[in-house]
Amino acid sequence: MRDICAQMRENSIPVMKSAMVARSAFKVPFRLGSTIYELSELEAKNPEAAIRNAEGFAQEVRDVFLGVETPQEVSAHA
Fold first, then answer.
1. 41: exposed, middle or buried (C-beta count within 10 Å: 0-12, 13-18, 19+)?
2. d(CA 72, CA 68)
3. Which residues have C-beta within 8 Å of that of residue 18, sequence separation ≥ 6?
4. 16 near 8, Cβ under 8 Å?
5. What's the start-to-end Cα distance of the chain, in Å?
6. Residue 19 pLDDT greater than 50, yes or no
7. What are the two backbone dihedrals, phi and then psi, of residue 34, each rounded to the nearest 5 degrees?
8. CB–CB of 54/43 below 8 Å?
9. Hey, where are the domains in the chain?
């Protein structure tokens, strides 16, 4: 993934600075018919981290559409 991101940057192809991390908290709500905001530690490991990750990604998507610069780059391997 690092090589792909580096090649995209080298060729001036825009890349999101945030990355969605594969988390069980993103899969469990589909099975339970709930949202990440409703998860407990018993249903998924560290739902708070999933919420922060999803909200950060959503904020960046919003900022891209509005043309707002994001302050710092987050590793694509978080």
1. exposed
2. 12
3. 53, 56, 57, 59, 60, 70, 74
4. no
5. 12
6. yes
7. -135, -165
8. no
9. 20-66
In the structure encoding, which two tokens stand for residue 6, read together? 């580096």
Q: Is the pLDDT at 78 greater than 80, yes or no? A: no
Distances from the Cα of 65 to the Cαs of 16, 17, 30, 61, 72, in angstroms?
A: 12, 14, 27, 6, 17
Tell me, what amino acid is at 42? L
Q: For the segment 42-74, what is each residue's pLDDT rounded down to a tens digit?
A: 999 999 999 999 999 999 999 988 988 765 444
Task: Please state the length of the chain.
Answer: 78
